[in-house]
Amino acid sequence: MAGVSYKISGVTRDAAGNAVGNCIVDLFYTQDDVKAATVQSDDSGNFTFLIGPNLQCYIVAYLAGSPDVYGTTINTLVGQSA
């Protein structure tokens, strides 16, 4: 359907489940591991990607520091209507 956007959004968190702000968040297409987009989460860890329909993706988040914080989602994220 033309003009309809889909989104993948969430909150970057550490291993204990605490929100972590200002992370670099990369979106990859599952089918070929190509990076599709990069955003930075806000101070509360919130992020959003706008994508096309019927795309399966996964996300890698990273925050440099001591210690570094990083994580990867499962590889079957699908956008919801925005």
Keywords, separated by commas or semicolons:
single chain, 82 residues, mainly beta, Immunoglobulin-like, 49% strand
Mind explaining what this structure looks like?
With 82 residues, the chain is an all-beta fold. It has a single domain (6-81), classed as Immunoglobulin-like, CATH 2.60.40. It is built from no helices and eight strands. The chain has strands spanning 6-11, 24-29, 35-40, 46-51, 56-63, 69-72, 77-78, 80-81. Strands 2, 3, 5, 6 and 7 form a five-stranded antiparallel beta sheet that branches. The model has no long low-confidence stretch (mean pLDDT 83).
Spans of at least 5 consecutive residues whose pLDDT stays below 50 are: none
Q: Overall 3D geometry?
A: globular
What is the name of the CATH architecture? Sandwich
Q: What's the Cα radius of gyration?
A: 13 Å
Write the layout of secondary structure elements.
Blueprint: E1 6-11, E2 24-29, E3 35-40, E4 46-51, E5 56-63, E6 69-72, E7 77-78, E8 80-81
Antiparallel strand pairs: 1-4, 1-8, 2-3, 2-5, 5-6, 5-7
